């Protein structure tokens, strides 16, 4: 093949490889390439330790003592301005990510349903570079162009058995509240991990327990698809916002007095040098949301 066409061919394979990556739950943390999407700021080959300057963009949603959140790689900017470049902050070492300092999370509720694993809770998320009073924003597996927000972010979970990549997920975070749902691959995953309601916040998208002082892990029923009320589907921006759907029941909870990794609260140590940024398209900037409706 002449150089030009082999280059085009190679690029095509690369692009198709990326597309493939978004639609088949194919990667393990060991098999993921260094980066999974063009323009990605961090990486997906993260090693097995932890590092408070890590730019790893793999999150895990395993259990209430072992989960990660997306948060900024550097302090001083809103979620809206960093949503493309967020990095993984985890409760446990071993994934090559940053660690969420002990004491940051003050309540966490994990539920495994037939269709998804979900964690909801509260904390002082200024410890993971979120600006005080930032009402935050939404992350999802699609983003603006298929690469997700954060771009190239991968989600893994062992909640359904063996650790696997979970391709369909949605998450919100603000300075004091978080929620993260990763959907089991099924025909229903796109409605149960719907990301169309990006300004509606955690409590509307994921009605669940957000109480402080409780660290629990439960099984539960799946919620109803967000935005769907019988035969009527709400569109974000319509004048009247319907109430959140009911919180689905959960049971068989295991309680923990706290969650910890031995990493002390390090507000300044948590800061790192500014990461290489991908250009932010103004149209996809800040998507603040309301905490309650
Ligand atoms: C931590 O991660 C940063 C960013 O990837 C890297 O430059 C640094 O060498 C890492 N430090 C250690 C001790 O691995
Ligand atoms: C959150 O943590 C920061 C840094 O540790 C601290 O200065 C601040 O007072 C805390 N905020 C609340 C509401 O506890
Ligand atoms: C998908 O959702 C429908 C309606 O809630 C339900 O009847 C069906 O069992 C679900 N299918 C799967 C594979 O989860
Ligand atoms: C949240 O969970 C805790 C522990 O199960 C329970 O005591 C509390 O009532 C729940 N809160 C709500 C709002 O359901």
UniProtKB/TrEMBL annotation:
It comes from the Eukaryota. It comes from Pisolithus tinctorius Marx 270. This is Carbohydrate-binding module family 13 protein. The lineage of its organism: Eukaryota, Fungi, Dikarya, Basidiomycota, Agaricomycotina. The keyword Signal applies. Keywords: Signal. Residues 1-21 form the signal peptide.
